[in-house]
């Protein structure tokens, strides 16, 4: 086993001789404990990280104590954290299993980064990757979801994927290694355990070499996915743009052969199901304004684009500026400069700068979001105009509208920030003092071409 372990690490370049140390995630179960034993036997000195999810009472505390003793016995650095997993799941509307997964990977990465480790080693084995294949197949997935676990994904490494669960158990018995048995591994309450205890044994009755057969299948699917992905990226060239945390997808994607598959590859990582993605593909050329939601993101069908953006709560807050000496840094950065020598002042020609007659202002000024019914007198015009009509003229998307800000004096709009000044506050020939207001954050969010 130790030889195969070293060979697998070398073949997949999981850890190099000059690499930073490994952080080993040790639950106390057989897989992670054997992984730790193999690391030590192979001459590595990993740090040990352990999560106590508080889900099994004294059993969870016993796991923590066991792993602590392992670390002390091997004289390795030990990091442990207790989580309120059920509370986190409830607050974030997640299953307990998904909450535990998110908590552990977030914390593993924090420990890795803060303490100088190069990677986090997880004790997944060959059975685990086959189980994941079957779970994805049952729930619905794209081609990538059928390629199994990878030996390395970002900073996460899986040095036991070469071994089956039975091979690990045999080695553990031969070496006299002690470990903790998680009682929940035997229940069929969870999908993975149903597959582990019922589905895979049924396949093994049909084919005793089922796990090896599946490993070979997934290797070929990985090669097929690599070919498919290279072609998909070529098709998507010029059709997808990233703007900060947003993804803008050109609706011309709907004219491509296999558009639904391409959309699936783009959207699956943002919580969208296959059924919802089919709905997006079917209505891609529909009128703008339609929105599609996942737990974490929303997709907005605009005139030319599908705009993918994280879900954010709408803020009705108002932000007050008490004087011209006070810059605003949140939610956007506005700076103010009072100009009293107006005879030598040259007004900047930029949408990001507004110059207003200071003596027409009454503080505090207010920064707020626009509302239906808001109107102003655009610079250079005699009549009033609804803000919503300005947005139509400027071909603003739903996202652009939501991210627009108004600078007001009471309910009077001074400036549609980054867009248009109000005529009633403009600098005139008799103006004695000018307030120069600069928006450093920018307000334009989209591609209006």
Q: What features would you describe in this structure?
A:
By secondary structure, the chain is α+β, with helices and mostly antiparallel strands. The protein folds into three domains: 2-212, Rossmann fold (3-Layer(aba) Sandwich); 238-310, Uridine Diphospho-n-acetylenolpyruvylglucosamine Reductase, domain 3 (2-Layer Sandwich), CATH 3.30.465; 319-439, Phenylalanyl-trna Synthetase, Chain B, domain 3 (Phenylalanyl-tRNA Synthetase, Chain B, domain 3, 3-Layer(bba) Sandwich), CATH 3.50.40.10. It is built from 13 helices and 21 strands. The strands form five sheets. Strands 3-2-1-4-6-5 form a six-stranded mixed sheet, with helices on both faces. Strands 7-8-11-10-9 form a five-stranded antiparallel sheet, with no helix packed on it. Strand 9 and strand 10 form a beta hairpin.
Instruction: Please give the alpha-carbon distance between the first and last residues.
Output: 60 Å
Q: Indicate the CATH class of the largest domain.
A: Alpha Beta
Radius of gyration: 29 Å
The shape, in one word, is: elongated
* Alpha-beta classification: alpha+beta
Count of helical stretches: 13
> According to CATH, what is the topology of the largest domain?
Rossmann fold
Mean pLDDT figure: 90
Largest sheet: 6 strands, mixed
Count of individual domains: 3
Major sheet strand order: 3-2-1-4-6-5
How large a portion of the residues is in β-strands, by DSSP E? 15-25%
Q: Which residues sit in consecutive blocks of at least 5 with pLDDT less than 50?
A: 443-449
Give the beta-strand count: 21
- Relevant CATH superfamily of the largest domain: HUPs
| CATH level-two architecture of the largest domain | 3-Layer(aba) Sandwich
What portion of residues is helical?
Answer: 25-40%
